[in-house]
Design goal:
single chain, alpha/beta, 8-stranded mixed beta sheet, globular
Amino acid sequence: MPLLVNGERIDLARPTGDMIRAYPHLEERAKLLRSQPAQIVEPKGLLYVQQREFAVTTPRDGSVSILGSDDATTCHIVVLRHTGSGATCLTHCDGSDTEAEVSVIMSSVKSFSNATGYGRLEVHLVGGFNDDRQLSQKLTNQLLRAFDLQPDDVHLVTFCVTELNDREENDTHFPIIYGIAVNVKTAEIFPATFPEKGPDEDLRSAHVLTGATLTNIYDAKMEQLHIGPYFWRPFPHVDFWLEQDDKQILQLLLLSCFSESFHIAPGRATPLCFPH
């Protein structure tokens, strides 16, 4: 079944700008989200999701009340929620295998919702900006297409991506929102930053650097966080990377170095020590 807005199937053959003009309430919702200051989310009750990770839980969870992720530039953060069961998934997509990743998170949310006789699937997309290489726009298109290919109706509720999440300063483009959180009890979504990105932040980052596929990090039924075990082949030329300072790594390794939020850079080389 298709990806829907206001009960209508989105025409993905049209440019994204035309779609935004066809559904002005999406632009208004994005504007409202952008206007909110980023809230600092403390570790208690938080499950932080890194790039190429996802987590799904329900309002009945006694350990986790907030799912969140940040440090997204060209990446997009996706929240998928079933309004009947309240099952909520958050993932941080980078375009590595978008269609397969969307299928995985769809299955995960539905596994908590099959017994529910009411409700619908709603998706919220946040992230990206008008980057020079149009990586954000490519990922936006991939996500829209992947959700449109799903066998279930999916309702697009929040669309704060790429041009709707862009600001310009001194001829350089930046994202407005780098991170979001969702309250799994209330379904509230808001811009957020996270002082703590653990546990095992460096180990999980190393897993991504060595080519990880999308990984589920949480068992909601047991209320247990699962980190690893991880396996990878030797990282090529790691000695070269470890000799570089943070600024050089940003320029060589990250997709959009000029738009990275200031807190991404420090210690970027640390995860490289794991595969070394």
